[in-house]
Design a protein that fits this description.
The protein has 9 helices and no strands. With about 280 residues, it is mostly helical.
């Protein structure tokens, strides 16, 4: 039986992301001291996981389950290192370059990096084979009797609606930092889902991805501050300095969100997401 083109596309795109993950893993294993290498590895993992979430019903579930466990472990170890890197950078930005908190963070970073390095050396020599197509795909989100374009035209505008609704809630006057963090994760998922179908869209895709990237950066800057404050614990001076920066960054986010994610902007997103190009796969 000839494979369904949607299932074939899903397997191909997932494989590409796993290949990029393997490349970043090898680089991070060689350079565990490099914050940029750790960051790139984390991003590549998120892109793989989003491919699994998007195409899960079309791919071998056993292979996905096994890979997700391994990726989750690496992600946790990367996160422990990156939190220290972020905190040290923030403290330097607010003028805190010495003291007990800085010493403790450097020590914690060194220990976390050693654990990560051991894991990456092991992962580097293991295979990360892409999941094959599922023998009998389930049909929940994907309608295999419809064209790729019809599937995207139906599903992508809904993702935009859900994203805008989440943003309205997260950016409300009473929202807490946990809601902002969840909105940040949703922004990543939305952007990485869009990337899976980049070839189906024109210049609007690049514009939309750029808007989401800027939003991620602003939300990430806030999350960095909130995470650092938790790590600092009872260091009142450092917490106060980072807290001031946090308030400044939150104001920047509010201004950007009012500009780019006003309710009327949703129509633009839904319009172009509902019109994928034909014969792009």
């Amino acid at each position: 039986m000839k494979p369904n083109p949607i299932s074939k596309y899903a397997a191909k795109e997932t494989k590409l992301r796993l290949q990029r993950f393997s490349k970043h893993l090898r680089h991070a294993a060689k350079h565990p001291e490099d914050p940029g290498a750790i960051h790139d590895l984390r991003v590549s993992i998120r892109r793989v996981v989003q491919a699994f979430k998007t195409f899960g019903e079309l791919l071998d579930p056993a292979a996905i389950k096994k890979l997700r466990r391994r990726l989750h472990k690496v992600m946790d170890l990367c996160g422990a290192v990156r939190n220290c890197d972020v905190a040290l950078v923030l403290l330097e930005q607010v003028g805190v370059t010495t003291g007990a908190s800085v010493s403790r963070l450097k020590k914690t970073r060194s220990e976390a990096a050693e654990k990560l390095h051991r894991r990456l050396k092991k992962e580097r020599h293991d295979r990360h084979a892409a999941p094959d197509r599922r023998s009998h795909p389930k049909e929940r989100e994907w309608k295999l009797d419809q064209s790729f374009e019809a599937n995207l035209s139906r599903a992508m505008p809904v993702l935009a609606e859900e994203f805008f609704a989440a943003g309205t809630a997260a950016l409300s006057a009473h929202a807490n930092y946990q809601k902002l963090h969840q909105f940040r994760l949703q922004a990543k998922r939305f952007r990485y889902t869009m990337e899976l179908f980049e070839r189906f869209y024109g210049s609007e895709m690049a514009g939309g991805a750029g808007i989401l990237k800027e939003l991620q950066d602003r939300l990430g800057a806030i999350n960095d501050c909130a995470t650092t404050i938790v790590i600092l614990g009872h260091d009142r001076g450092a917490v106060a300095a980072v807290g001031k920066l946090l308030r400044e960054r939150k104001a920047v986010l509010k201004s950007y969100a009012r500009s780019e994610f006003a309710p009327q902007k949703l129509d633009w997103w839904k319009h172009w997401l509902a019109q994928p190009a034909r014969n792009a796969a």
